[in-house]
Known about the structure:
Elements (H helix, E strand, L loop, with lengths): L4 E9 L7 H19 L7 E5 L1 H10 L1 H12 L3 E4 L13 H19 L5 E3 L9 H7 L4 E5 H6 L11 E5 L2 E8 L1 H6 L5 H14 L3 E8 L9 H7 L2 H11 L4 E4 L1 H7 L14 H6 L3 H14 L5 H4 L11 H4 L1 H22 L4 H13 L17 H22 L7 E5 L8 E5 L3 E6 L5 E7 L4 E2 L12 H6 L37 E5 L5 H5 L15 E6 L3 E12 L2 E12 L4 E9 L7 E10 L8 E4 L5 E4 L4 E13 L4 E24 L2 E17 L7 E11 L8 H6 L1
Parallel strand pairs: 1-2, 1-8, 1-9, 2-3, 4-5, 5-7
Antiparallel strand pairs: 6-7, 10-11, 11-12, 12-13, 13-14, 15-20, 16-17, 17-18, 18-19, 19-26, 20-25, 21-22, 21-23, 23-24, 24-25, 24-26
Helix pairs in contact: 2-3, 4-5, 16-17, 16-18, 17-18
Amino acid sequence: MKSHATLCLVLHNHQPIGNFDGVFEQAYQDSYLPFLDVFEPYESLQISLHTSGPLMLWLAEQHPEYLDRIRMLVDAGRIEIIGGPQYEPILTMLPSRDRIGQIQAYSAWLERNLGAAPTGMWMPERVWESCLAKDIVDSGIKYTVLDDFHFRAAGLEDDQLTSYYLTEDDGRILKIFPGSEHLRYTIPFQPAQQTIDHCRQIADKSPGAILTFGDDGEKFGTWPDTKSHVYEDGWLRSFFDALVENAEWLHTKTLGHALRQAEPAGKVYLPDCSYREMTEWALPVEAQTRFDDVIHAMESHQRWRDLKSFVRGGYWRNFKTKYDETNEMYARMMHVSRRLLDAEEAGADAGELSVIRDHLYRGQCNCPYWHGAFGGIYLPHLRNAIFNHLIEADTRLDNVMNPGPTGVQATAEDYNFDGLQEVKLSNNRLCVWVAPARGGRIYEFDVRTIRHNLLATLQRRPENYHQKVLKGPSKDSEEVSSIHDRIVFKQENLDQHLHYDKFPRKSLMDHFYDVDATLETVSSGETMERGDFVDLPYETKLRRGSDRVQVQMRRDGNAWGIPLTITKAVTMFADSNRILLTYLLENLPPEKTLHFGIEMNFAGLPAGADDRYFSDIEGKQLGQLGTKLDLSEVLGLSLSDRWLGIDVSLEIDRPSGIWAYPVETVSQSEAGFELVHQSVCVQPHWLVHGDADGRWSVEIEMTTACEEQTETLSEEQVIRL
């Protein structure tokens, strides 16, 4: 048979919920628009195009002319629209009802607005579990793309990956194309002829082969250095020219076209998997380091080619254990999803429920739920956007299910799936989540009026790539490389900012320090913890009054080996934007001074802007929120963010020392290593002496004064937030 092959080019264009409007626009100008400009004249070429829901909605509002051009190419049969879940969630983290709902919602939008009813879909981050097949097929989808890495993990050889396969779950049959990892690394980083030569080799060995390239559209202009390489230096035109010149044997078709012309290669059941790099990122840091070491040691072994198909890293769901903050967002999302189901079953207003469902779906966008080569969970604006939509959905559900004044509520259950009970205190203004078994900490603090979680914080923790940070920048290279291979430093001296936290960055974290502990030693994480209160269980009672609820927590522990008892309480009031925090320390030894501190953290209040600042209790500004403060004998502190529209004030009933400092991480993004402001830590602290009965107490009133918002944030505001 004469050598020939089909090449399916599948582009995935995506910007997440919460990304800045300027980032959307820059990606449009650098990638999406110029790619279309180059592609349109090549009338014989076809591609399959997936545009994620957040990006598609932005394009519809900001650049409808782009969608007009796409629609014309769809009508001409040159672009196949690929669907998927509307707001790009990782499907394995969703309940079945939300998987189906998201896919169907986006398919309906695409049909209404582009006249295309998709039968193929993009699998977000190619995260796969066999149980997904049933829900995907039930959503009306017939085929999708995964990586050839998935197929090799199932035992298939390279020469078997020359068509699509069938898989099945509960009797539903789904067709899956194996996307080529080799092509992901040659396109667009190697000369076009290398891709042609690779396709020729496959065609010679397997005439009629189907080769699939599926990857991010942003690598054509948005990824570092690719704009000049792909467009100014002419790589994309040379690639399309090469495809046209070789069209006699290499046919560039859409997935749907290839599907209609070829039979499946067989049936396969794929293991739970994602693309190769993702399996590495999902590992715990120590395991990831060992994994890298083993791979590098084995690559030169004569049997490595036979072995490597069976070597893979971790499992996407373990991002929920690698990062506690991922689990917090996930658990919050699941709580809203369950409440929405309850409201549907109770017959609540369908119109309002559709609005709530859209906020829930937006809050499922995958990007801040994990971390790899992209910033992901390390980007505060993405985390804030997730909570913004989940808080809005939750508040609307309160109004739907309990119309009118509801007072103040206290409930207890295992909200975060750790096998332990948490406590939720809520009124119409605030929602506070307390984990008594985890040091009695507050781990989420929702300000409902501005839809913001003040504890969408991030712990400073080791990352595998920090070893590269410690080694410093590498020599510059003139070659354009994949983001997986780049080592670029966006700021100098990042190694000096590598500090790690022993505990999460939450509030009501109860510390005992040496008397000589300082702001510098505490902020760098170098101070020894001398007590056992910060992370161990407290006994808990719930108290309810006519206009207030209180969670009271008590722990018999020790500091420096001295038996102590701490009783602390969080009190919330009806129709109030303040909470009361009270502490009682007992059994204090009369002859010893104890250094006691209460750590609080505040997220979403960034540094580096004059309209985000500290103030004393008299209103005098003390500097931007990135300032380090070491205050003595004060009665409080305020944090203000004029853009967000919030003032958080702490008023303390006894003279106190207060440390305040920014919490910053050194994280990896597609553009390189960078320093990111995560939160502001505020620690009132005291040299404690007991009274005649060995007791000491303090009361802190926390007030969140906000600019009231009576309407849902506009799409532009949501994206910017």
